[in-house]
Amino acid sequence: MIKYLGSKRLLVPRIVEIVAALDAVQPVRTVLDLFAGTSRVGHALKHAGCRVLANDDATYAHVLATAYVQADAEDWAAALSALLPELSAAPPVHGYITRTFCEEARYFTPENGARIDGIRAAIAARALPPELEALALTALLEAADRVDSTTGLQMAYLKRWAPRAANPLVLRAPALLPRARHGKGAAHRLDALDAARALAADVAYLDPPYNQHSYLGNYHAWETIARGDEPAAYGVARKRVDTRERRSRFNSRRRHAAALREVIAAVDARVLVVSFSDEGFVTRDDVTAMLAPRGEVLVFAHDFKRYVGAQIGIHNPRGEKVGRVSHLRNREFLFVAGPPAALAGVRAAAEPAPLPA
């Protein structure tokens, strides 16, 4: 899966373990992943047998959720296996990606940019069924991610080419799963509050943006590839102009607490599992208080290295290191809230051991 700020890769086993402990007390058939992102969590819960409803309002996230949560191997594995060689053979095109992200910026080499343009045009020309198109687009996004020249964010590109950028772009099939035993999953592209009001589940997992960093701004190139459009772009990073307009309430210090409180209150689920960071706009105690009306609240804390940009440090436009990063580690919290009887299995579990840094 693509590199992603806020990825729950290291927390996924704990989240799956919590859902399993809840299921041991009262069956968990359907899980709502309200802020799906790369669908890493939804994919793991589908693998565990849950029917997953994945939601995110970004187009690239909806594509990933369609591939990893909604599409099933028994329906598409053979068709995808036949399609990828055809797409790989598409001729390179000097198009929008090449101009914007290889010449005006330097996210990819021009050779790989032209491959991305050519493959994206070939996908569009085929008018594929939606799930198969999402699988093809996911293969392209992940191929591009493997040859980009960034620290994992598209706020900027590296001053010197990352070694991986010299590799040729290669399409690989996403890790398709068979249909979960509790039923076919679904990908939704709704505002989080609308999704909370419209979608019901046994357990809801919430991983909201927690500070000013916009996922759409950080992954604008993936949004453009997924949409297949040619938006006006601005700045050295060549961001889509609509990243200025499509602002989330969760990225506003002034509006964040009210937005989170409203979503938590609206979710139609027996138990809520919430991820949050100590780098967020609200505190651990704030989140606990927001969840208290749902019943008992359990909190598990894990210590992690901060994202790679913090490890590299602060640099000026000439590439010179300036200033000091305030801290190199942060704490991620998992909150579990619901009726005390439903939380018996989670409560009985030993305090989580530290996860690998």
Can you tell me about this structure?
With 357 residues, the protein is α/β, with parallel strands linked by helices. It has 2 domains: 1-71 and 177-209 and 250-352, Vaccinia Virus protein VP39 (Rossmann fold, 3-Layer(aba) Sandwich), CATH 3.40.50.150; 73-176 and 220-247, no CATH class. 39% of the residues lie in helices and 15% in strands. It contains 14 helices and 9 strands. It has helices at 12-25, 40-47, 59-70, 73-88, 96-103, 110-126, 130-146, 192-198, 215-218, 220-227, 256-266, 284-291, 308-312, 344-348, and strands spanning 30-33, 51-55, 186-188, 200-206, 233-234, 239-240, 268-277, 296-305, 329-338. The strands form 2 sheets. A 7-stranded mixed sheet has the order 3-2-1-4-7-9-8, with helices on both faces. A two-stranded antiparallel sheet has the order 5-6. A hairpin with a 4-residue loop joins strand 5 (233-234) and strand 6. Helix 3 (59-70) packs across helix 7 (130-146) and helix 3 (59-70) crosses helix 10. The two termini are 19 Å apart. Residues 306-312 and 350-357 have low confidence and may be disordered.
Topology of helices and strands:
Blueprint lengths: L11 H14 L4 E4 L6 H8 L3 E5 L3 H12 L2 H16 L7 H8 L6 H17 L3 H17 L39 E3 L3 H7 L1 E7 L8 H4 L1 H8 L5 E2 L4 E2 L15 H11 L1 E10 L6 H8 L4 E10 L2 H5 L16 E10 L5 H5 L9
